[in-house]
Design a protein that fits this description.
binds ligand SAJ; elongated; alpha/beta; 13 strands; five-stranded parallel sheet
């Protein structure tokens, strides 16, 4: 039975995973290259935000075995949870996965298991990670076991999902899968499914690609509906009455560093065979320009016209703005000469890339209120805000304001249900290349 685990990478996945292993009775060594992260953790301070993290960390520090350090040490299992950044051409950069594997080489002993949790392009375990171990003299799958066990947790629900979700365990060979599965059995309550490393890599990427393609379909429906005079939101509701249909929800684009990124890891392996995934990415990437175009129809462009933007995070009720399509919308509105005032109750002003305003300040004298994120705060919009606007018009790209909540006397509400009512005459100068 495995007793000691070394987790390489103490980020959004590696750190919570370390704590869950510690609570399950393992001695856990958390390794991070950042001195700042290591000293913060050893001083009892958490460096990332996640529901329940603070409490669980204090419990682990008091009652279980966890310490953070900059270098690995001998252990039974090594878990690699480092980032796989995306290069400018959208290909995956697996350098951190390789260097983390190299970092454990000096400590490896016969019978150890190396598990990669980082999201990686298909075949990376077989073609990139295994050769690092082989080159060091190990017979992989016989002396050292190697597996890919992709993380599949939703930010905000990490601690529940780490335990409750089904876990895919992809072995370099069946013995490796069995060794890795044994480790996760310590705390996973969901099903543990054993497979090959390549199938596990592909399954993880396809989960997010499934979502990306379906969101693209919903966004395409929204565009077609706006053009030919159909209520896209009603159509989605109607079609989803069918027992085997689940149309997704249109929005201002797809953000976060999973769904907007993972399809590229498949596309890079076979660009000529992935026209659907490629088109889906392009459709979702075109949505900020589409939103700016609709804003221009509401508020025909004149230098200095004010637009209030509510919500810049990549999805509702989180504080994460990475890859958020809202950032691009704000940027493009600014480029088109609008005076943009951003309000987001979940984003700290000092961490925001633009000046932030209160709701009242943002809407003051605005000619359009653009909602880009479905935070709970916006679902119960305070109607008195509208009376501060120069013209009380809302463009709600996340369908979070109930139309019955906004009586005609208070203002006009546009969403993907009635975009076709907007006149086509006045449009802003969105670069043609960005309009799909
Ligand atoms: N979105 C839409 N329409 C929809 C659904 C989502 O426009 O119908 C947008 C959201 O607004 C957001 C983006 O898509 O901008 C992604 O949000 P999300 O909540 O769907 O997913 P993430 O990126 O927070 O987390 C995903 C999860 N994957 C799946 O649900 C298949 C999570 O389980 C993964 O662990 C995570 O990616 C990851 O790390 O890969």
């Amino acid at each position: 039975m495995t007793k000691k685990i070394c987790v390489i990478g103490l980020g959004y996945i590696g750190f919570p995973t370390s704590l869950v292993f510690a609570r399950a009775g393992f001695e856990v060594i958390g390794v991070d290259v950042s001195e700042r992260v290591v000293s913060a953790l050893n001083a009892g301070e958490v460096h990332i935000e996640e529901n329940g993290l603070e409490e669980i960390f204090q419990d682990v520090r008091t009652n279980y075995a966890f310490k953070a350090q900059r270098h690995p040490e001998p252990a039974d299992t090594y878990i690699i949870a480092v980032p796989t950044p995306v290069n400018a051409d959208h290909t995956a950069n697996v350098d951190y996965v390789v260097s983390a594997t190299e970092a454990v080489l000096p400590y490896l002993r016969k019978g150890n298991t190396v598990i990669v949790e980082s999201t990686i392009p298909p075949r990376t375990i077989d073609d990139v990670v295994a050769p690092v171990l082989t080159k060091a003299g190990w017979r992989v799958g016989e002396e050292i076991y190697l597996a890919h066990c992709p993380e599949r947790v939703l930010p905000g629900r990490i601690f529940q999902e780490l335990v409750e979700n089904n876990r895919i365990v992809g072995g370099y060979n069946p013995q490796s899968a069995e060794k890795a599965a044994e480790v996760y059995r310590a705390f996973v309550k969901g099903e543990i499914i054993l497979t090959s490393a390549t199938s596990a890599e592909m399954a993880k990427l396809m989960e997010n690609t499934f979502r990306d393609v379906n969101i693209a379909l919903a966004n395409e429906l929204a565009k077609v509906s706006a053009s030919i005079g159909v209520d896209a939101l009603e159509v989605i509701g109607l079609a989803n009455k069918h027992p085997r249909v689940n149309l997704h929800t249109p929005g201002p684009g797809v953000g976060g560093h999973c769904i907007a990124v993972d399809p590229y890891f498949i596309i890079e392996k076979a660009p000529e065979l992935t026209p659907l995934m490629t088109a889906s990415r392009a459709i979702n990437n075109s949505m900020p320009a589409f939103v700016v175009e609709q804003t221009g129809k509401i508020t025909p462009f004149h230098a200095g016209k004010r637009v209030a933007v509510f919500g810049i995070t990549y999805k509702g009720n989180v504080d994460d703005i990475r890859e958020s399509p809202a950032l691009e919308v704000v940027h493009m509105l600014g480029e088109n000469g609008f005076d943009v005032r951003v309000h987001d109750p979940h984003v700290l002003a000092e961490l925001a890339p633009f000046p932030m305003f209160t709701a009242e300040e943002a809407v003051a004298d605005a000619e359009c209120l653009l909602i880009l994120t479905d935070h709970n705060e916006f679902k119960a919009l305070d109607l008195s805000l509208l009376s501060r606007m120069k013209s009380p018009v809302i463009l709600d790209t996340k369908n979070c304001v109930e139309s019955s909540h906004v009586p005609q006397s208070a203002g006009k509400l546009y969403n993907y249900g009635n975009l076709h009512e907007l006149s086509r005459v006045d449009t802003v100068a969105v670069p043609v290349s960005q309009l799909a």
